[in-house]
């Protein structure tokens, strides 16, 4: 490993690729810890709490690490809630913020004892009619702020499906009054990759205005959206400046509110993105009339962000880090256009070389699939200089696990393929 505690060296990543095979996701525990502690220090002057947004990466080992650091957990499905409980989180340290789910899922979360965040009036009214003031709820508001690095990850604008419009506050008041609901928190999340501190401050001012309509609040949840740098020179959220200014504003409001309030945040990408490395192998070098392609042993079935969000991930050749730079377009082995990077300067790539894509900790493995019946990669956690396998690579068994033979009504058996001469353990 490199001497820098934040970075895994090229040589170390090559060793991991040789030991565990590729494609391979690698996560660095010390970088995750550093990012979490950075947030704690930035907001250290106020009553701030952080709930890791586990939709970024839900491997149980990552959840256990976050729990050991004292983080709470932000979840968006009942399955994530159950994973959090399995990882050891206290239900009181889990917030459940679903979208467009049935009341049954909300009730299940209530029975598990977690914080519930409701983002539409229909469910708010149904929950209030059923439970009255017997179980507190948080309300997710839409502040009508356009923010975020991509329209697909902007969640607080007028056309967003998320949250209840701040202009429906009178309707919310009527539902709360008629059902007796106990509202103990307000929530907002405007989007991801927000680099302008003023966006957060504008949002919190709106939250302060909305808080005046409720007199029993325990917390204001400001979501997240902290941006990290994906390439050299990229702007990122100045969390130290944000922490100072947000804390000052929050403390001022808390004094006026005459009730102690906590400030909650739900960072996901900020905590795990830069801790993640995605290692692939160059299968072929293919030269066409216009382009030199590096075809690797992966595709958007393993890392969809470049195709889905036009996201940039720095790509380096870790097998030949001192080779002369050439221009390559890095593509995958899927029967669709699955380009990881166009016209990239990369040290000369030879067939069999290992490449690494940086900032792959958030929404990498988590959004992976078995498209083309390809197998999902393994995951490794590096902690205190030691590599731990935290997910085994898929086998053909995983593709067949839930398929049922229509003629016999039984699950397909691997031995049927073995009789046919298939190598069931081959990638």
Please, could you describe this protein's structure?
Helix 5 links the parallel strand 4 and strand 5 (about 115-120). The chain folds into 2 domains: about 1-30 and about 270-395, Lyase, Ornithine Decarboxylase, Chain A, domain 1, CATH 2.40.37; about 60-265, Alpha-Beta Barrel (TIM Barrel). The chain has 13 helices and 18 strands. The chain has helices at about 10-20, 30-40, 60-70, 80-85, 105-110, 120-130, 170-180, 195-210, 240-255, 270, 305-310, 395-400, 415-420, and strands at about 25-30, 50-55, 70-75, 95, 115-120, 135-140, 165, 185, 220, 260-265, 275-285, 290-295, 315, 325-330, 340-345, 355-360, 380-385, 385-390. Strands 1, 11, 12, 13, 14, 15, 16, 17 and 18 form a 9-stranded mixed beta sheet that branches. Strands 2-3-4-5-6-8-9-10 form an 8-stranded parallel β-barrel, surrounded by 5 helices. The chain is α/β, with parallel strands linked by helices and about 425 residues long. The longest helix is centred in the middle third of the chain and has 19 residues, at about 240-255. The model is unreliable at about 145-155 and about 420-425 (pLDDT under 50). The two termini are about 30 Å apart.
């Amino acid at each position: 490993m490199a001497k820098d505690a934040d970075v895994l060296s090229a040589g170390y990543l090559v060793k991991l690729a040789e030991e565990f095979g590729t494609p391979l996701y690698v996560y660095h525990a010390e970088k995750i810890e550093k990012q979490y502690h950075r947030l704690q220090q930035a907001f250290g002057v106020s009553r701030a709490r952080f709930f890791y947004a586990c939709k970024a990466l839900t491997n149980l080992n990552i959840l256990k690490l976050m729990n050991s650091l004292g983080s709470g957990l932000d979840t968006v499905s009942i399955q994530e809630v159950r994973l959090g409980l399995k990882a050891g989180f206290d239900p009181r340290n889990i917030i459940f913020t679903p979208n467009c789910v049935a009341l049954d899922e909300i009730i299940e979360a209530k029975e598990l004892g977690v914080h519930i965040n409701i983002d539409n009036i229909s469910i708010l009214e149904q929950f209030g009619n059923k439970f009255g003031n017997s179980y507190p709820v948080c309300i997710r508001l839409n502040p009508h702020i356009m923010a975020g690095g991509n329209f697909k990850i902007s969640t607080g604008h007028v056309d967003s499906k998320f949250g209840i419009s701040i202009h429906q506050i009178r309707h919310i008041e009527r539902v709360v009054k008629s059902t007796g609901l106990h509202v103990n928190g307000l929530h907002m999340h405007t989007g991801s990759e927000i680099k302008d501190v003023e966006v957060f401050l504008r949002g919190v001012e709106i939250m302060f205005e909305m808080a005046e309509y409720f007199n029993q609040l325990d917390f204001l949840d400001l979501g997240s959206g902290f941006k990290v740098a994906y390439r050299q020179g990229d702007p990122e959220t100045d969390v130290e400046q944000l922490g100072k200014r947000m804390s000052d504003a929050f403390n001022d409001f808390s004094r006026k509110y005459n009730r102690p309030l906590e400030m909650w945040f739900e960072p996901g990408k900020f905590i795990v993105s830069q801790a993640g490395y995605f290692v692939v192998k160059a299968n072929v070098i293919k030269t066409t009339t216009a382009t030199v392609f590096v075809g690797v042993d992966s595709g958007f079935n393993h890392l969809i962000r470049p195709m889905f969000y036009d996201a940039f991930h720095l790509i380096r050749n870790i097998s030949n880090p001192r080779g002369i730079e050439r221009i390559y377009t890095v593509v995958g082995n899927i029967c669709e256009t699955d380009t990881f990077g166009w016209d990239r300067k990369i040290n000369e790539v030879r067939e069999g070389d290992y490449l690494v894509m940086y900032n792959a900790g958030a929404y990498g493995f988590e959004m992976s699939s078995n498209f083309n019946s390809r197998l999902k990669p393994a995951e490794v956690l590096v902690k205190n200089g030691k590599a731990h396998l935290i997910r085994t690579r898929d086998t053909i068994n995983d593709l067949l696990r839930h398929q049922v033979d229509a003629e016999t009504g039984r699950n397909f058996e691997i031995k049927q393929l073995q009789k046919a001469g298939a190598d069931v353990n081959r990638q």
